């Protein structure tokens, strides 16, 4: 939809009106036949039609182009009233700058920033409303440190609130201790399994070394027996030699 033509000061050229909504062009696009439309208007039209609403020539979304520069300049120079005119704003500015003004306009209706409050208030009156809003929050005057809503003043009990928080902290601490305990037990179990596995490997290596040592001792005894036999044979040969 375009800008309401009633908001504009002075004459508005027919060529600057949307061919569909007949209001002043907003975010305009132009067809090859040079008829201009608001972007939202022509996109909505082409959902159900495939031609220009003015001369019925065939058009497609891909054929739409931005407005000619001179027409865009004429459009931007138009003067119009702020949309908050009915609330007291007397600002008249160019179409090019109207959005910037309306974003900051003191007469704009904006929501209260307090959670739970549904009041819409003029920007210029927001501070006054926040000072008395029943959903405003403040720190407890008794020093418990809690932030409370004005509507909850009568129900607020420092001792009860602190007791509740203490219970929550205690529960949280117990949970953390249990988590730390489980984590430590898991680590100990992992280390214990690792040590058992390592002990088993070492025990196997010891048994293998024992087996190797036993074989070596057996070989040594065999060598010593062979050496004695060899010595005896040499002594016998020496005796026989002497006898000869």
Question: What does this protein structure show overall?
Answer:
The chain is mainly alpha-helical. Among the domains are: 5-104, 2-Layer Sandwich (Herpes Virus-1); 109-149, no CATH class. The chain is built from five helices and nine strands, in the order ββαβαββαββαββα. The protein has helices at residues 39-48, 69-77, 95-104, 126-132, 158-243, and strands at 28-30, 36-38, 65-66, 79-81, 92-94, 109-111, 120-122, 137-139, 147-149. The strands form four sheets. A three-stranded antiparallel beta sheet has the order 2-1-3. A two-stranded antiparallel ribbon has the order 4-5. The longest helix has 86 residues, at 158-243. The radius of gyration is 49 Å and the shape is elongated. The termini are far apart. The mean pLDDT is 87.
Described by the principal axes of the CA atoms, the overall outline is: elongated
* Structural class by secondary-structure content: mainly alpha
- Going by CATH, what is the homologous superfamily of the domain at 5-104? Zinc/RING finger domain, C3HC4 (zinc finger)
The parts where pLDDT drops under 50 for at least 5 residues are none
């Amino acid at each position: 939809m375009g800008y309401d033509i009633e908001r504009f000061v002075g004459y508005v050229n027919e060529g600057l009106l949307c061919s569909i909504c007949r209001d002043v062009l907003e975010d305009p696009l132009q067809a090859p036949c040079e008829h201009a439309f608001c972007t939202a208007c022509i996109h909505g039209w082409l959902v159900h039609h495939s031609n220009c609403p003015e001369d019925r020539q065939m058009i497609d979304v891909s054929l739409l182009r931005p407005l000619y520069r001179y027409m865009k300049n004429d459009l931007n120079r138009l003067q119009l009233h702020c949309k908050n005119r009915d609330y007291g704003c007397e600002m008249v500015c160019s179409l090019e700058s109207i959005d910037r003004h309306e974003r900051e306009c003191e007469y704009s209706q904006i929501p209260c920033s307090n959670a739970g409050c549904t009041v819409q208030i003029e920007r210029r009156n927001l501070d006054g409303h926040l000072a008395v809003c029943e959903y405003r929050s403040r720190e407890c005057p008794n020093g418990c440190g809690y932030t409370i809503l004005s509507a909850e003043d009568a129900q607020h009990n420092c001792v009860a609130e602190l007791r509740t928080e203490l219970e929550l902290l205690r529960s949280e601490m117990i949970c953390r201790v249990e988590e730390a305990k489980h984590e430590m037990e898991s680590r100990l179990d992992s280390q214990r399994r690792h040590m058992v596995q390592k002990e088993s490997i070492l025990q196997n290596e010891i048994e293998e070394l024992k087996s190797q040592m036993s074989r070596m001792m057996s070989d040594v005894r065999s060598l010593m027996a062979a050496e004695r036999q060899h010595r005896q044979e040499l002594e016998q040969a020496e005796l026989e030699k002497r006898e000869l």
